[in-house]
Amino acid sequence: MSELIERALQSAHETKQVISAAGALDEVASVFSEAFPGATAIVIGDERTMAAAGDKVAAVLAAAGVSTLDPYVFPGEPELYAKYENVELLRGVLEPLSAVAIAVGGGSLNDLVKRTSGELGRPYMVVATAASMDGYTAFGASIAKDGYKNTLNCPAPVAAVADIDVLAAAPSVMTASGYGDLIGKVPAGADWLIADALGVEAVDKGVWDLVQGPLRTSLSRPDALAAGDADAVAGLAEGLLMSGLAMQAHQSSRPASGAEHQFSHLWEMEGHGTDIKPRRLSHGFKVALGTVSIAALYEILLATDLTRLDIDAAVRAWPTRSRLEEKIRRYHSHPQVLPAAIEQTMAKYIEPADLAVRLHQVVELWPTLKVTLADQLIGAAELQKMLRAAGAPAHPDDIRLGWGAFKDTYVRSQMIRKRYTVLDLALEANLLDGIVEELFAADGFWGTQQP
Ligand SMILES: [Zn+2]
User: How remote is the CA of residue 322 from the centroid of ligand 1, in Å?
Assistant: First the structure.
């Protein structure tokens, strides 16, 4: 186990063991027995993940004499979806059994087993089959209820095993998704630095290092990842596992998620890309485009001299609560997104007098803050190159998102989470609309790429 993961486990709340190595499937039985002494195991997979790793997991458990029940296997076609009906189905299967579930699969399967085990008040373990997202070691599960995708609360796994041989053999589109999820930690870090500087949410240096420490190395070889290079995949897997552990340590997704994830969450909540075949649009692919989008916004913000900010004009432009609610209603009509947006936006609303204080702070801090942010960030064009090399999306066309809907996301996504990000800073400084217009102008970052 890497030293970093070992360090991360010391502060993780639920996960006690993580093994990320070539041939790690051979250790599944010893990990299970150590985590759940004397317990009976039940492997949960789908037809694809059973072939990739599940059958081997069952064989390793049996050979080691671990008591096991017959695996529960979802169909391989159509692609498994993390919808609440599948949680209910799985709960029906697991409830009468006295067994610990071992999820063998990617994001959807892990989320289903995580949530079901959580509802049953049972611990579980996960065996990853793709380096496709950072949720293996995180708490919470992204589950669709009545077509509306949301993060439901539930504990992280007690143990996680990632066999690099299995991950490297996964479809390249899944590895590219993991790359997209991980590259989002670059602007997410910048957002946390802003929130820290303004006294909204302090950076926890220990947790910060877990994610940001190995990040640049994990992201450094996108072309090797696309080629399925095992060392590059090991680096990506480590970055993703660390990110999940950091969220556990911080008991919040702040270390791993900023405005780029708000882009992704908005599209997820509204169901964008669920109809794309043969593979649904992944979380990581949405984060990939969110990351380029936010990096482009940062570039304009960093080129703006905020020491000359017109604070009085910004405070005059700041809406009252009722005006703000009217605005949210103008931008959101989805029956489930709208109430969530009102709640989340109101939770971060500040009164005009407090806004003036905050903006004075911005003016004062800007000369140093802009340097810190520039150090943290990667340019939007460079990010596009990295993502394309990995085989991940870098343009709205790549995720079949219409140009207007894409542009609107800059304004709409600010309203769906109370987390303070660069979108809030830009909005409060009365700069957001202008920046968006600049991005989409004929000679702007996006304008020059309009299809
Ligand atoms: Zn993510």
Answer: 32
